[in-house]
Automatic annotation (TrEMBL):
<feature type="transmembrane region" description="Helical">
    <location>
        <begin position="33"/>
        <end position="50"/>
    </location>
</feature>
<feature type="transmembrane region" description="Helical">
    <location>
        <begin position="84"/>
        <end position="103"/>
    </location>
</feature>
<dbReference type="Pfam" id="PF00893">
    <property type="entry name" value="Multi_Drug_Res"/>
</dbReference>
<keyword id="KW-0813">Transport</keyword>
<keyword id="KW-1003">Cell membrane</keyword>
<protein>
    <recommendedName>
        <fullName>Guanidinium exporter</fullName>
    </recommendedName>
</protein>
<dbReference type="InterPro" id="IPR000390">
    <property type="entry name" value="Small_drug/metabolite_transptr"/>
</dbReference>
<keyword id="KW-0812">Transmembrane</keyword>
<keyword id="KW-1133">Transmembrane helix</keyword>
<keyword id="KW-0472">Membrane</keyword>
<feature type="transmembrane region" description="Helical">
    <location>
        <begin position="57"/>
        <end position="78"/>
    </location>
</feature>
<dbReference type="InterPro" id="IPR045324">
    <property type="entry name" value="Small_multidrug_res"/>
</dbReference>
<dbReference type="InterPro" id="IPR037185">
    <property type="entry name" value="EmrE-like"/>
</dbReference>
<comment type="similarity">
    <text>Belongs to the drug/metabolite transporter (DMT) superfamily. Small multidrug resistance (SMR) (TC 2.A.7.1) family. Gdx/SugE subfamily.</text>
</comment>
Amino acid sequence: MSWIFLFFAGLFEIGWAIGLKYTDGFSKPLPTLLTIASMIVSLGLLGLALKELPVGTAYAVWTGIGTVGTALLGIWLLGEPATAVRLSCIGLIVSGIVGLKLVA
């Protein structure tokens, strides 16, 4: 169950990271509230995952999911560049997440 909590914590981390872009410096109320709510849910789920998972592994996987998801959504939603080097680096992060899952 902890891995499920961690997975969803990572998804909500993506939500708040992308949400920050849409808050326009916290000047737009609805995106700001959704971003803050996503932060709270993400941290709450991470806390639940940490009941059973090692902190180093859980934190690395949480940030990895957030990093990969945010980078991919930045490419898809915000028109950020999708160069071969950038996509390869994202692949390396995914490899690290899978490796941590396999050894934890």
